[in-house]
Write a sequence for this structure.
């Protein structure tokens, strides 16, 4: 298993990222393309620190976006662990919320 350095909340930026998740029945985690489209530094350790949009065509074809069971999936950016998926937005399953890894470790 690969390890990643943890990013501070201030190192997280809008832009390209990846979500490490398992959607195939073989339990093999894979990296899927996504984008961080909004960051919120207020709210303490709340679970809505960022909004992530799934952009990977393979994941979108398989699931339509973020689905039940993806909560806790790591969010990686620039080779660092920046957070984890918390839940999907109800209006658009391609988007979901994430929590900063820094807040999870606190």
């Amino acid at each position: 298993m690969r390890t990643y350095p943890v990013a501070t909340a201030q190192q997280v930026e809008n832009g390209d990222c990846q979500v490490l998740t398992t959607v195939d029945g073989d339990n093999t985690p894979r990296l899927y393309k996504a984008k961080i489209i909004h960051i919120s530094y207020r709210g303490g350790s709340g679970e809505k620190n960022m909004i992530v949009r799934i952009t990977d065509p393979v994941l979108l074809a398989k699931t339509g976006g973020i689905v039940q069971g993806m909560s806790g999936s790591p969010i990686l950016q620039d080779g660092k662990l920046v957070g984890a998926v918390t839940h999907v937005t109800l209006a658009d399953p391609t988007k979901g919320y994430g929590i900063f890894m820094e807040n999870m470790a606190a």
User: Anything to note?
Assistant: The first helix runs from residue 57 to 63. The helical segments are 57-63, 101-105. The CA atoms of residues 26 and 62 lie 14 Å apart.
